[in-house]
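User: I'm putting together notes for a lab meeting next week and I want to include a structural view of one of the chains we've been expressing. I don't have a solved structure, so I'd like a prediction I can at least talk through. The sequence is below, exactly as it appears in our construct file.
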Amino acid sequence: MKLRLIAVGKIREPYLAAALADFRKRLERYAAYEEVEVAVARGTDPARAVREEGERIARTLVAGEPFWLLDRAGSQLTSIELSEKIQRTAAGGHTRLTLAVAGTYGAHSVLIERADFVWSLSSLTFLHEWARAIVVEQLYRAAKIARGESYHH
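Assistant: Thanks for the context. Below is the predicted structure for the 153-residue chain, given as structure tokens.
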């Protein structure tokens, strides 16, 4: 199954860009992977930024395609549970799974309502750029688990 990650903004920090490049390379050995960056809403109040970024993400979604949203209010999963959930999604006949990491101020209600699953990485708060890197690393780890490979190293 193809995996697609939609994220708000570009990665600015070189160390984080390098980590993402490494995890992308590792993941692409297991699954087709694509990242879509949507523009950050600048110079606006937080509520307007959430709305604008939510609308930008929503425009990239395909009707009938599974969509998971990253949000701290979502459900937490172990790496094994994540792998199993992705495998069940693929077994349901879906050819692509889209995930989204919203911007600094969180996700708009239109995305929460559209999401088939709302996933929380932790009850901790992360920068959205870090959340993006963690998601890609966890997708890679889930792919290794699905193949029965060691995933602790």
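A couple of points you could mention at the meeting. Strands lie at 2-8, 33-38, 67-75, 96-101, 117-119. The domain at 2-146 is CATH 3.40.1280.10 (Alpha/beta knot).

User: Perfect, that's what I needed.
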